[in-house]
Amino acid sequence: MTTTFFAPPDYIADGRIVLPDDEARHAVRALRHSVGDEIVVVDGAGGRYRVRLTEADKRGAAGEIVGTERDVGEPTHRLIIGLGVLKNAGRFETFVEKAVELGVTDIVPLVTERTERSILKAKRLDNILIAALKQSGRSRLPTLTNPQPLADRLVEHAEGLRILCHEAADPEPLLPRVLARNPAQDITILVGPEGGFSDSEVADAEVAGWTVASLGPRRLRAETAAIAAASVAMLHKSL
Ligand code: SAH
């Protein structure tokens, strides 16, 4: 399998790409690429390039673009997943990695009644986003917003289908059924933190026009619920 490298758009100009230092080190020292080799570079903004190296030594790596494709590996519609900021930062990070692999386009950390933290390690999360982007063969980095209050999200007039996942005694309607009633379109799905959504948050969502959906009769951990919901939605009409 060819390794994919990452270079943000400001490293790309006039048909040439300079690899950021850490990517250059990886290419030259670890993978032993040399001048004349062809590598694949994604820019996180939808660009995927075939690049022939013209410089590859301990000072850095750069090359000329010999092929360009747009939006390789990207879904046809937006899939926005909101997940309560988790007390266990590692679990939120697991979700972010899987979300990239599954094709989620927007990740929204939510501050809810029962969230116990509202701060995320931004630099760590950026690194996870980039590593997962390269690994999964996508070309566009999902957006990751700052943590935002659930209430703000609920009243926003987001386009498309708006779903809040909530565990209930009566597991109806199941998420796939809600999706099946609707054509492929932009989808927003919200999942609560470890302690779940409160009754009043669920009621507010219904008043604001959100559909409350179930993921089955078992209580899933928050990040499992978010990953399951993202998987089902992404495979729905192959977004
Ligand atoms: N309130 C529970 C568990 C919360 S699970 C408690 O503390 O006992 C965390 C989040 O995962 C929930 O807010 C919900 O959005 C989602 N979730 C977990 N299991 C689910 C299920 N079976 N159906 C729908 N959503 C679920």
Return the average pLDDT rounded to an integer.
94
Major β-sheet, in short?
Answer: 7 strands, parallel
Name given to the CATH architecture of the largest domain: 3-Layer(aba) Sandwich
Structural class: alpha/beta
| Percent in strands | 25-35%
By CATH, the superfamily of the largest domain comes out as SPOUT methyltransferase, trefoil knot domain
Order of helices and strands: EEEHEEEEHEHEEHEHEHEH
Q: Treating each run of at least 4 consecutive H or I residues as one helix, how many helices?
A: 7
CATH topology of the largest domain: Alpha/beta knot
Q: Quaternary arrangement of the chains shown?
A: single chain
Integer count of domains? 2
Through-space gap between termini: 25 Å
Tertiary shape: elongated
> Ligands in the structure?
S-adenosyl-L-homocysteine
Describe the structure.
The chain has 239 residues and is of the alpha/beta class. Helix content is 31%, strand content 27%. It folds into two domains: 4-70, Hypothetical PUA domain-like, domain 1 (Ribosomal Protein L25, Chain P); 79-238, Alpha/beta knot (3-Layer(aba) Sandwich). It is built from seven helices and 13 strands. The strands form two sheets. Strands 7, 8, 9, 10, 11, 12 and 13 form a seven-stranded parallel sheet that branches. Strands 1-4-5-6-3-2 form a six-stranded mixed sheet. Helix 2 packs parallel to helix 3 and helix 2 packs parallel to helix 7. 38% of the residues are buried. S-adenosyl-L-homocysteine binds at residues 165-167, 191-192, 195-197, 214-216, 218-220, 222, 225.
